[in-house]
Design a protein that fits this description.
The protein is an alpha+beta fold. The chain is 38% helix and 33% strand. The radius of gyration is 24 Å and the shape is elongated.
Length: 199
Amino acid sequence: MNPGLAKAWTVDDAAERLARQGFFLEVMRYVYDQVSTFLQEISMRMNALAAILSLSTACLLVTSGCGPEEQEAETAVSNGSVQQAATNLCGAGYRLIDTYPMKNNKGAVKGHYNLYYNGTRNCGVAECYTNCGVKMNRTVSIRVSSTSGSWDDFDFGQFTTYAGPVYSKPSAGKCLDLSAGFGVENSVASVDVLRVHCD
């Protein structure tokens, strides 16, 4: 065999093997990213389920405020005043950049996750749309998207109008995960979004 041809074949073979290894690494990176995103979503769903179970348990422990009349009650609190209060809660310099509806299992909007930004951090407030003024379990959370599964900030309790504010870690140029829920007994409204506002 011609030594020159043998050498050329060896170099080409090595290059092909490296190319295959590079392709394999790209595939593995893609699979890793997909699995990480899936696990983040599962984590958010588990948190939402835990909140729903907590809401149901809380209603079993109290003697009032969980009936159908309270679930559908409307008060004189206007959406405008609620939004203004939420804006003030985030603090000076925060401006509203997005709103996500919180729907129950019938698709009815019961609240909104309002997202604010001040140029460095994001702030989230979960506000009532119906049942304003009715004390019920309300929860809101926020984080910079990652594989850790833990929230940057979280608020949960029995509130009459909104949950929050909650604040992200410095988030310029980073994606966000958001979650919120309101509810009493079998009437729960929630929203869960992954990897939004990445720019």
